[in-house]
Amino acid sequence: MFSTMQDVPLTVARMLRHGSTIHATSTVTTWTGDPAAPHRRTFAEIGRRSAQLAHALRDELGVTPRSVVGTLMWNNAEHVEAYCALPAMGAVLHTLNLRLPAHQLRYVIQHADDRVIIVNGSVLPLLAPLLPGLDRVEHIVVSGPGDLSLLAGARARVHAYEELIAGRPTTYDWPQLDERDPAALCYTSGTTGDPKGTVYSHRSIHLHAMQVNMAESMAFTAGDTSLALVPMFHVLSWGMPHAALLSGFNLLLPDRFLQPGHIADMIATERPCHAAAVPTLFQGLLHELAERPRDVSALTTVTIGGSACPEPLMRALDERHGIRVAHAWGMTETSPLGTTSQPPPGLTPEEEWPYRLSQGRFPAGVEARLIGPDGTEMPWDGSSAGELEVRGPWIAGGYWAGAGSTEPERPADRFSPDGWLRTGDVGTITPDGYLRLTDRAKDVIKSGGEWISSVELEGLLMGHPSVREAAVVAVPDERWGERPLACVVPADGEADYAALRDHLGEKLARWQLPEHWTTIEEVPRTSVGKYDKKVLRARYAEGGLTVTTLVPDPRQ
Amino acid sequence: MFSTMQDVPLTVARMLRHGSTIHATSTVTTWTGDPAAPHRRTFAEIGRRSAQLAHALRDELGVTPRSVVGTLMWNNAEHVEAYCALPAMGAVLHTLNLRLPAHQLRYVIQHADDRVIIVNGSVLPLLAPLLPGLDRVEHIVVSGPGDLSLLAGARARVHAYEELIAGRPTTYDWPQLDERDPAALCYTSGTTGDPKGTVYSHRSIHLHAMQVNMAESMAFTAGDTSLALVPMFHVLSWGMPHAALLSGFNLLLPDRFLQPGHIADMIATERPCHAAAVPTLFQGLLHELAERPRDVSALTTVTIGGSACPEPLMRALDERHGIRVAHAWGMTETSPLGTTSQPPPGLTPEEEWPYRLSQGRFPAGVEARLIGPDGTEMPWDGSSAGELEVRGPWIAGGYWAGAGSTEPERPADRFSPDGWLRTGDVGTITPDGYLRLTDRAKDVIKSGGEWISSVELEGLLMGHPSVREAAVVAVPDERWGERPLACVVPADGEADYAALRDHLGEKLARWQLPEHWTTIEEVPRTSVGKYDKKVLRARYAEGGLTVTTLVPDPRQ
Fold it and tell me: What are the AMP-dependent synthetase/ligase domain coordinates in residue numbering (chains A, B) (predicted)?
């Protein structure tokens, strides 16, 4: 027996054909800074202009199937056109992260071998200084106004986006592709080492976009409008543009206007029902609305990812503005939808909170397991912690190893021997499948075959009135492998380590309590504001911290 | 460049693993006839029992990968177990339609080469008489109470379901399958010729189940309860059991209790928010509730498929009970989700009606085109009619040609040369993608390169007070190919053909008006109550109708 089903590949061209016909009248709105004059384009127009862009890239710029084309752009309609045209014509969309340090930006352009870069005019000051080191870039396509004189000395040919596509045919005979063909490329912004590239396939993009629209995830339908604040250079904008092609929801895009005042204006005038963003943008919005109120009543749901949303921010959005935050967890390697949090039914609002604060549940496309300190699988009991490993059709199985490679790179610290992605996140899973992340694997303290959560210790320390800030890091220990070192910023005066240790002892087992203590002036942070614990570990290793050890052996 | 995504197949085993862990506490409730004692089983239990069933089938009954196992069962938890275990173990689930005439039931069991049949005890009176002709059936597994003496003379070995699975391991090492492997088999209940088999793949079942859960379709999430009245032997129960594994909604199953009183009791006591059914069941429910009111307030949405829901029934459910009907169109060959109807946003309730009465929009998985009378593609303008052809990953590309075949059958009247499914339905599509079906292709009148809708003529005729019923069929015409013959059942007295023709002329073009008229006593109907126009065409061909021809040439 064999299946009698049609063998139809899941491709971006197919998604574009659907979106630009069935949802012809849905819109992509790009903010211009002027609330009275947003820029609107229908999905039908996006379809026609994507065809024109494909013709221009193929006929004028020599883009062929599997060519990699970089985009250095804000969230706008032209970026959506690149999202559609490049994969549909068989090329690979490489979204370049505007926030990367210059040396990493140059690295990824070279590593991906971008011959063509589409760039917003406003971003030219970022691109121009890099070009001297980028000899293989042949074409630069500039969209929107910008100072073209910045490109005066460039070796690459410079084109204006609108002139380039004008007058070309508005349909394109998209090639027949295999759904496993490469469609898009994103690099991680790894804080250590070179960025690593994840190559999405047509299949992974299509399946992931279906999941975005599923009722348990973002539940989009035609007629909804979503404000996609998540940058289009972050993990394909969490799949939003491709998901919009499937179900026809309207996209509202901020372009470069990410200031709280603009965001509040967008919500008030365009009335999106949904937004997708990292938490900091909504922290800013909350202040903005307190100072200059707007009508944001249309907005009911915000999907927050990138990092966990602090509970006070979640509660404030809920109580002051009726905006419900839904957590999502993911990473570049997971396309990114790994979980979305929707509490189980039948709970009171207060009972829902622990679920809302969790990372949520895995969709069927994402299989999960927790690997404990000894390498075995941990039970889903809500308390046994392990490193999260995931498997699924939109999960990376390796990294792009660069031009000429025939195999992905599979570093052992990122991929298990049986092919699962090691996420580097440590947490627990409840019997009903809710993930609660507690630590990054690199920050967890591995002590005598058990794990001690640095985040839990920090939370408890900061709950003590004498502590302004605290970071806990692992330091080497002959007997136990690692032990926790608590680095405390006192609220004022000197820290009373013994009192703090007793405070922790009220909640934790004896072996979890730090015996090593030090006082610091402030917790060092990364460029994006996260605790930079590797600085503390290095300072400790160099003997740069004055450490007090309270008890010689914590297990006695 | 190549994709770095994991290559994970979309299989039923994967769906079952997800459903029985992440949604371990979701439930399958089977109605027992007693509102106080429904039978409940969690998804975790379904998972364990599916493993037990698989062990029993493999170790005891010799079921191997690609074996076909028939189920002759109502909607109940054991049928869900067969839906899970058979595809997951690599076998093929063949759902047998209880309503098929005996000779067709025997035919499909033989054609599929079922060696094992799982049957509900209550259905044994249907199966027992067939067995003498079914020498290749080796095992009969009986679930639930029934008169086993009916099987006394059977050649096949008889097993009791619960005894067979009891004590076996509750986990199973599901084999690694290709997602294109066969998973399930349904035969059409074609009114002409032998039933035709559609073989679903793991891939088609998984993608279709994702679509069922998408917000634009049935929008299920964990915590929802859906009353699946659509028989599990109809197109895999519209994908409901497999969709439940993905998103964890609860299944409420009627078993054999399909009487309106039982349905009302199920809704009142189990409080489903959704139901899926053919229209007639809800016609019956409406009468039941009028006579014996129940609290059906939990039920807000009913997905109606199989045939269009009459507008008065839709309005009555809405106005009297706050139950909103959503149309879906599909067929065995489309898995079945072909369209679902959700009106565009921003309309008043009255403006929504034309959309609600349409068949709805195609999801991204279903590409559509309309092929007109001359074989060319028709525009989507809401008025140009054509035969609907569809393509997609859950659409059939052929029929199962029987044991030993290596290629599907692709009859030219069902599949276009380029592989699209010819649905046999005729209709229009609006510019925004809403399908309105008007006729079956075999009933449309093909006249001089144009199509005349028999259904439209019938509707207008029945709108005239002198007409009780009317059917319009095509009769051969030398000049035009075909012309309409109006067959009228007068309300009383004799029909005034000229007056009726003038009545039609108020709405239709001259060339669309029937010139041939006859009076009949009643419109012949098929066993399921639809107009049986082939009887009228045959009667005409045999000269059995007295025909009056009003104008010799309708185009002058």
Answer: 38-400
A398 touching B, CB under 8 A? yes
The C-alpha R_g of chain B, in whole angstroms, comes to 25
The pLDDT value given to residue A46 = 98
What confidence score (pLDDT) does residue B554 get?
52
Q: Which CATH number fits domain B444-549: 3.30.300.30, 3.40.50.300, 3.30.9.10, 3.40.50.720?
A: 3.30.300.30
Contact A433 B22 (CB under 8 A): yes
Q: Which two tokens stand for residue A303?
A: 């999907």
pLDDT band for position A346 (50/70/90)? confident
Range 202-241 of B in CB contact (< 8 A) with A: 203-204, 207, 210-211, 213-216, 219-224
Q: Is A20 on the interface with B (CB under 8 A)?
A: no
Nearest CA in chain B to A225: B345
Residue contact A22–B399, C-beta within 8 A? no
d(CA B21, CA B28) in angstroms, rounded, equals 15
Parallel/antiparallel/unpaired status of strands B182-187 and B197-201 = antiparallel
- Least CB–CB distance from A6: residue in B181, B395, B400: B395
| Joined tokens for residue B279 | 């229209």
Sheet holding B68-72, edge to edge: B157-160, B139-143, B116-120, B68-72, B92-95, B182-187, B197-201
User: Chain A window 126-185: which residues touch B at a Cβ cutoff of 8 Å?
Assistant: 180-183, 185
* pTM attached to this predicted model: 0.92
Query: In this predicted structure, what is the pLDDT of residue B556?
Result: 47
d(CA A551, CA A502): 13
The architecture (CATH level 2) of B1-25+40-201 comes to 3-Layer(aba) Sandwich (3.40)
- CATH superfamily name and code, A9-20+36-200: ANL, N-terminal domain (3.40.50.12780)
Q: How far is A473 from chain B (nearest CA, A)?
A: 33
- From the number of C-beta atoms within 10 Å of its C-beta (0-12, 13-18, 19+), residue A533 rates as buried
Of the candidates A174, A198, A200, the one whose C-alpha atom is nearest the C-alpha of residue A187 is A198
Q: List, for chain B, all residue ranges whose pLDDT scores fall below the cut of 50.
A: 556
- The model's confidence at residue A331, banded by pLDDT at 50, 70 and 90, is very high
Q: Are the Cβ atoms of B4 and A199 closer than 8 angstroms? A: yes
For residue range A68-94, list pLDDT tens digits in order: 999 999 999 999 999 999 999 999 999
Report the residue of chain B nearest A379, measured CA to CA.
Answer: B21
pLDDT (tens digit per residue) in A244-270: 999 999 999 999 999 999 999 999 999
Residue of B nearest to A433 (CA): B22
pLDDT in tens, A425-468: 999 999 989 999 988 888 889 888 888 889 889 989 988 999 99
Could you tell me how many CB contacts below 8 A there are between chain A and chain B?
221
C-alpha torsion angle, residues A456, A457, A458, A464 (rounded to 10): 110
Q: Is A3 in contact with B197 (CB distance < 8 Å)?
A: no
CATH of B362-443, one of 3.30.70.100, 3.40.50.2000, 3.40.220.10, 2.30.38.10: 2.30.38.10
Query: How close are the terminal C-alpha atoms of chain A, in Å?
Result: 66
| Protein fold of A446-549 | GMP Synthetase; Chain A, domain 3 (3.30.300)
